[in-house]
Amino acid sequence: MLKERMTPEELAHLTGYSRQTINKWVRKEGWQTSPRPGVQGGKARLVHVSDEVREFIRSAQRAADFPARAHYPAEDNFDSLLLSLANEMSDHEQKELTSLLLREGITGLLLRLGIRTQGQ
């Protein structure tokens, strides 16, 4: 899912290319960027996702890694679904989920979700 402004990392996850490749495209294609709020040093940038950027990204997506059906999670495999969900989460949400998984493990998560009971 493309937002109005995205980090190179977000675009990398979306396309299957590296952050470095995205940054190379930004420079080469002359895409508009702006400073990322809350990040000091001035290097962190947000890419303005214009129609030109959208079209470039659509044409550059790696078909093998990101099939056209990836927009329909119910048809996708479980790993891809989890990755898609993680990519939709904010950095803060990802850190919180990581912390929960490290603290409680998969059994603790399944217990919290009501998928597993204490005795299983």
Structure notes:
It is a single chain. The chain has helices spanning 8-15, 19-29, 51-60, 78-88, 91-113; strands spanning 5-6, 33-35, 45-48. The protein has a domain at 5-68: Arc Repressor Mutant, subunit A, CATH 1.10.10. Strands 1-3-2 form a 3-stranded antiparallel sheet. Helix 1 crosses helix 2 (19-29). With 120 residues, the protein is mainly alpha-helical.
Features:
mainly alpha; 52% helix; Arc Repressor Mutant, subunit A; 5 helices; three-stranded antiparallel beta sheet; 120 residues
Q: Profile the largest sheet.
A: 3 strands, antiparallel
Strand order of the largest sheet: 1-3-2
Please state the structural category.
mainly alpha
Shape: elongated
CATH topology-level name of the domain at 5-68:
Arc Repressor Mutant, subunit A
Order of helices and strands: EHHEEHHH
Distance N terminus to C terminus? 38 Å
Instruction: Give the rounded overall mean pLDDT.
Output: 80
User: Taking Cα atoms only, what radius of gyration do you get, to the nearest Å?
Assistant: 18 Å
What is the CATH architecture annotation of the domain at 5-68?
Orthogonal Bundle
Number of helices: 5
Low-confidence runs = 63-75
Briefly, what CATH class of the domain at 5-68? Mainly Alpha
Please state roughly what percent of the residues sit in beta strands, choosing from under 5%, 5-15%, 15-25%, 25-35%, 35-45% or over 45%.
Answer: 5-15%
Helix content bin: 40-55%
